[in-house]
Automatic annotation (TrEMBL):
This is Probable transcriptional regulatory protein E4635_02165. GO terms for biological process: regulation of DNA-templated transcription. Pfam families: TACO1_YebC_N, Transcrip_reg. Its main location: cytoplasm.
Length: 237
């Protein structure tokens, strides 16, 4: 098993368990997908992927359809994806993905969290290079041979594949998302969910007291409505 497997195993037990937060994130994804490629999922591959994720999160179909309709309204503000970088106490690098309709508000909020928790907000590119930007797809395990599937999907960019209790998960570089999505759809394979993650190239182990310092900052960041994902280089306990 590789780094993607270990990252997923550690992260799975962690955050984003709150259903309301998950639905908010998916709602923003729908708006961005519709603004980018229109409201028809058959011709908008990004929207198809978001709808799959909504289904995996048990988001009601009515909620999804309502979000698509709202996103189609010209008066609905679009969200801009903005990346923030910085350091928590004890040298832990933090990468924050946000989706915001008011960048000034988001910048001020993120900076305040770092300042209040003895962290340092960094400049663009200061820690991003420490993380590999990956994409992932989850498909049902039934009827699949993982080793055979891995050999078949290598040509489309898949670098790591493994099975768990929820199905088969594939990891690939960020740039391979479109090719893999197209191939899975061509094979009529059900895509349970898909998405993007940033996997730290190296991690740092801290003492319990030091972990508490970092967790304090992470919790403040993750509670912000504009924040979509938070990644860091701390070893998960």
């Amino acid at each position: 098993m590789g780094r993607a497997f270990e990252f997923r195993k550690a992260r799975k037990m962690k955050r984003w368990s709150a259903m309301a937060k998950t639905f908010t994130r998916i709602g923003k994804d729908i708006v961005m997908a519709v603004k980018e490629g229109g409201p028809n999922p058959e011709t908008n591959s990004r929207l198809r992927a978001v709808i799959q994720n909504a289904k995996a999160a048990n988001m009601p179909k009515d909620n999804v359809e309502r979000a698509i309709k709202k996103a189609s309204d010209k008066d609905t503000a679009n969200f801009k994806e903005v990346l923030f970088e910085g350091y928590a106490p004890h040298g832990i690098a933090i990468l924050i993905e946000t989706a915001t309709d008011n960048n000034n508000r988001t910048v001020a909020n993120i900076r305040s969290y770092f300042n209040k928790c003895n962290g340092t907000m960094g400049t663009q590119g200061s820690v991003e290079f420490m993380f590999d930007h990956t994409c992932n797809f989850r498909i049902p395990a039934e009827g699949q041979d993982v080793e055979e599937l891995e050999l078949e999907m290598i040509d489309f960019g898949v670098e790591e594949i493994f099975a768990d209790e929820d199905g088969i998960l594939m990891y690939a570089p960020f740039e391979s998302f479109g090719a893999i999505q197209k191939e899975l759809e061509n094979r009529n394979m059900e895509i349970l969910s898909s998405g993007f993650e940033r996997i730290p190239q190296i991690t740092k182990e801290l003492t319990p007291d030091q972990v508490a310092d970092v967790e304090k900052l992470l919790e403040k960041i993750e509670e912000d409505d504009d924040v979509m994902n938070v990644y860091h280089t701390m070893v998960e306990l």
